[in-house]
Amino acid sequence: MDRLVSFTLDFEDLRTDPSVQEERVVLVTDRILGKLRERGIRGTFFCVGELAEQHPALMRRIVADGHELGVHGYQHIPNDLLGPERFRSDNEKAKAILSDIAGAEVVLYRAPQYSLVPSTPWIPEILTELGFIASSSVLPAHSPLYGWPGAPTTPFRWPSGLIELPSPVTKLGPMTFPFLGGTYLRLLPSAIRKRGVRSSDPASVLWTYCHPWEFDPDEKFYVYEHGGWLVSRIGWLNRRGMLKRVLNALEPQAGLPLGEIVASLGDVPLFDPFGTDQQLASGQK
Ligand SMILES: [Zn+2]
């Protein structure tokens, strides 16, 4: 049986100087929404809270099309740069904004740039305290930006109870990488994507991740704030082909939105890299 791939998008705008760089995120997101509507695909939109606040009409169109909302920070800042206090207040604010738009409590979270890593161990507990149920924020591989090599590649539970759906990865020679989204999906031959899906662990949850800017060949080049020149250049490659690649990855039929998958998961193994469970049991914390 074919393994199904779910659609997820990180709704963000990476412009560094909005006073001179044209805003294109609404135009491009509407284009994506139209294609998904044509094909009857529902997915999960992880939204930067501040951006959602600025575009309520677009957000209402996303919800009206049956997509789920999740939080992608209040601003698009990697979590190690935020620290625990600001992480808490930012995501509490973003959750309230998005829950208001969705008309229901938003309980899904995705870290900017997969910045749930060994140096940010406080994230799962804070998310649970804020009422989040699931996260898709761990890249279980080495990465030039943020990754957690050795983390499980199938759904797991943090000691706080939060469910994690790790980013789908595949191996090619010595490399392990997130083949279903971003640069990898945009640039690598589709044979690698197909092989990755075929050889995936049946217990893994497969989802494609992408960003509005990746679908926009006409955006003028600039250097990303948390990227540097080379990463930014790579971000402009093959944007013209991205929509087709994402839609192909969702054939023959898209998987369910992530929240619906989490609701049907049942029990998943505990991942406790810091021994938090034992500390809780013995009263230390
Ligand atoms: Zn992002």
Describe the structure.
The protein is α/β, with parallel strands linked by helices. The chain has one domain: TIM Barrel, CATH 3.20.20.370. Helices cover 36% and strands 11% of the residues. It is built from 11 helices and 10 strands. A 4-stranded parallel β-sheet has the order 3-2-1-10. A 4-stranded mixed β-sheet has the order 4-5-7-6. The chain is globular. The chain starts with 5 loop residues before the first strand and ends with a helix. The site of zinc ion (ZN) has 6 residues, from loops.
Topology of helices and strands:
Blueprint: E1 6-11, H1 25-38, E2 44-47, H2 49-54, H3 56-64, E3 68-71, H4 79-102, E4 108-109, H5 123-129, E5 134-135, E6 156-157, E7 163-164, E8 170-172, E9 175-177, H6 182-187, H7 190-198, E10 207-210, H8 229-235, H9 242-249, H10 258-263, H11 276-281
Parallel strand pairs: 1-2, 1-10, 2-3, 4-5, 5-7
Antiparallel strand pairs: 6-7, 8-9
Bound molecules: zinc ion.
Keywords:
285 residues; TIM Barrel; alpha/beta; binds zinc ion; 36% helix; 10 strands
Please tell me the overall pLDDT.
95
Please tell me how large the radius of gyration is: 18 Å
User: Sheet with the most strands?
Assistant: 4 strands, parallel
In CATH, the homologous superfamily goes by the name: Glycoside hydrolase/deacetylase
Question: Ends: how far apart?
Answer: 46 Å
User: What fraction of residues sit in β-strands?
Assistant: 5-15%
How many DSSP-defined strands?
Answer: 10
CATH topology: TIM Barrel
- For the record, the count of structural domains works out to 1
- Helix content bin: 25-40%
Name the poorly predicted regions.
none
